[in-house]
Amino acid sequence: DAKTTQPNSMESNEEEPVHLPCNHSTISGTDYIHWYRQLPSQGPEYVIHGLTSNVNNRMASLAIAEDRKSSTLILHRATLRDAAVYYCGTYYGGSQGNLIFGKGTKLSVKP
Amino acid sequence: DAGVIQSPRHEVTEMGQEVTLRCKPISGHNSLFWYRQTMMRGLELLIYFNNNVPIDDSGMPEDRFSAKMPNASFSTLKIQPSEPRDSAVYFCASSLTGHSGNTIYFGEGSWLTVV
Question: Is B97 part of the contact surface with chain A (CB cutoff 8 Å)?
Fold first, then answer.
């Protein structure tokens, strides 16, 4: 079965970098890796996505392993507003639309 | 721009009643998704439409659940009859196309409680 796994929770100090890992060992070669985050009582919001190369945007960076079986979301300087549940998702089976999420990592940021 | 709009935001209903959740995707988006979120199972994909046609409904838990998309700007998820274990947050989402490189935009969710 397709499976995306993430740690249940992580802690970080404010202003420090955070590395959130995700394993997606059954991903196919053409499927993108997506990261979303969810604040309390809100819908998930897009953070970043990529295929093979590392990606950067104003919110975060995405480091993708060479074999694509894992990826890491990098928040360069955590702020209190970054405290959320972060979901890693991948499209399994090569078909469109089947974006399957992991159970998410709850990130706590300490001042 | 308006995002994905869902209604109702909150619903409390009695077991056995019919529940209808509604979704208006972002204008111009051709793909629509219904997800269910619970503490135990996380975010589960229930069904996915592309150009108003259901493509994959393998995530729909049982026959009590049905989803329709009569046109490009409206979709419903219906539960009949509802049961307490259906209590969850139901998210509708849309994307430009079903390609895996597209961003998916989520609504604020419909919080369902079945008592």
Answer: yes
Task: Answer yes or no: is pLDDT of A92 > 90.
Answer: no
With contact defined as beta carbons under 8 Å apart, do A70 and A63 qualify? Answer: no
3-state secondary structure of A36: strand
**Alpha-carbon separation of residue A7 from A41, A105, B27 (angstroms):** 21, 6, 36
Main-chain dihedrals φ then ψ at residue A81, nearest 5 degrees? -75, -10
Whether A9 and A102 have beta carbons less than 8 Å apart is answered as: no
Give the model's confidence band at A26: pLDDT under 50 very low, under 70 low, under 90 confident, else very high.
confident
Q: What is the per-residue pLDDT across B12-58, written as a single tens digit (0 to 9) for each?
A: 999 999 999 999 999 999 999 999 999 888 899 999 999 999 988 88
CA atoms within 13 A on the CB side of B64: 14
Question: Chain B interface, mutation test: which of A36, A51, A99, A101, most B Cβ atoms within 10 Å?
Answer: A99
CA distances from A106 to A7, A11, A41, B92, B110 (A): 8, 8, 14, 22, 22
Q: DSSP 3-state assignment of B85?
A: helix
